[in-house]
Design brief:
Shape: rod-shaped
Number of domains: 2
CATH architecture of the largest domain: 2-Layer Sandwich
CATH superfamily of the largest domain: Histidine kinase-like ATPase, C-terminal domain
Distance between the termini: 59 Å
Number of helices: 11
CATH class of the largest domain: Alpha Beta
Radius of gyration: 35 Å
Largest sheet: 5 strands, mixed
Strand order of the largest sheet: 4-6-7-9-8
Oligomer: single chain
Order of helices and strands: HHEEHHHHHEHEEHEEHHEEE
Number of strands: 10
Structural class: alpha+beta
């Protein structure tokens, strides 16, 4: 009995090796199919009376499994997955009918030559009860396997698209930053301001961080806040004695990571719109607090009454950061923007990644 079982298992393995040569399947799928067929073999061929595998049931099962290959590796990808349902149904019907005819007209007369089972046809209903369960189980598991692989491909493609979109959005920040600051630098150069070299130095430091140190999806929070401070210094040089800029960062306990260049956009907008149409009494208050893994960022600036804030709501920078927040912190952030007659306030709350 043990020799028969070993022979049948080897037959299953050999049949799948041959199938792999003709049809390209992965090793994982090959192993999955072998385990599946062994389990189905044990379930349908095991007899509680004898305590072992009934050899003729195993032979029929092997025949059913070989026939199922035509459904799972030909009919399903060629018709079912291409939504050609009638062709698929016709093909499956043809396979099932062929299996029943071969079993009743060829296999059973050979295996049971002198018995009533080998001479008589039990009827289509009885034959379907023995054939369909095995074919449905094997085909169903193959369909489930293909669905999981397809979903994995979709997830991989989705991640690739999101990463490409994030990279595109992040790359937009550099020209946006350059565009705003080169205009300011140009005006200082025309005035031959002694602060021009200092502005260039600070600007090069911020650009270095943008180009080389912020390529990762997440960066250390302390490093990001350090660059945020350098960024604020750059803009404070342009305000000079025309107002007050406060940058308050609570002491941060622990190591956290944050998406790079998320906060810079709000600060850039605050400086740009406070200076537009306003020559004095500029007030910009920026605060950062971290409680457990929650970051709270507040940026408040004043502006001249009557100045249009359409550029704040519709500008590249704010659209960019909204999109990045949606991609990187889905359901993990709150962004609120409040506008009054002379005040503009941004409140951002998001869940940080803890190292």
């Amino acid at each position: 009995m043990f020799v028969k079982q070993l022979f049948l298992c080897n037959a299953f393995i050999d049949s799948f090796v041959l199938a792999k040569k003709s049809i390209l399947i992965s090793r994982k799928e090959l192993l999955f199919q072998i385990i599946l067929h062994v389990l189905v073999l044990l379930f349908f061929s095991f007899s509680r009376n004898t305590g072992g595998i009934v050899w003729y049931r195993a032979v029929f099962l092997l025949f059913y499994s070989i026939s199922t290959v035509s459904i799972t590796y030909y009919l399903m990808p060629r018709f079912l997955y291409k939504k050609k349902y009638w062709q698929f149904f016709f093909g499956v019907t043809l396979v099932v009918v062929s299996v029943i005819l071969i079993e009743e007209l060829v296999l059973e007369p050979i295996m049971f030559p002198d018995t009533e089972r080998g001479r008589n046809f039990p009827g289509i209903y009885i034959s379907l009860l023995s054939v369909l369960p095995v074919i449905c189980i094997l085909s169903g598991f193959k369909f489930g396997w293909d669905a999981l692989q397809k979903q994995a491909q979709i997830d991989e493609l989705k991640n690739a698209i999101e990463e490409s979109e994030l990279q595109f959005l992040r790359n937009q920040i550099n020209p946006h930053f350059l565009f705003n600051n080169l205009n300011n630098l140009y005006s200082y150069a025309l005035q031959e301001s002694p602060k021009t070299p200092e502005i260039i130095l600070e600007m090069s430091g911020v650009l270095r961080y943008m180009l080389y140190e912020s390529k990762e999806q997440m960066v250390p929070l302390k490093k990001e806040l350090e660059q945020l401070g350098n960024f604020i210094k750059l803009y404070k040089l342009q305000i000079e004695d025309r107002g007050e800029v406060l940058f308050d960062v609570d002491k941060i306990e622990g190591e956290y990571r944050i998406a790079p260049l998320i906060l810079i956009v709000f600060i850039e907008n605050a400086f740009k719109h406070s200076q537009s149409g306003q020559s004095s009494d500029i007030k910009i208050n920026i605060s950062v607090k971290v409680n457990n893994t929650t970051l709270e960022f507040v940026c408040n600036n004043n502006y001249v009454s009557g100045f249009s804030l359409d550029s704040v709501a519709k500008g590249i920078g704010l659209k960019n950061v909204r999109k990045r927040l949606e991609l990187l912190y889905p359901k993990k952030h709150i962004l609120q923007i409040e506008e009054t007659e002379n005040d503009y306030k941004v409140y951002l709350k998001l869940e940080l990644e803890k190292v």
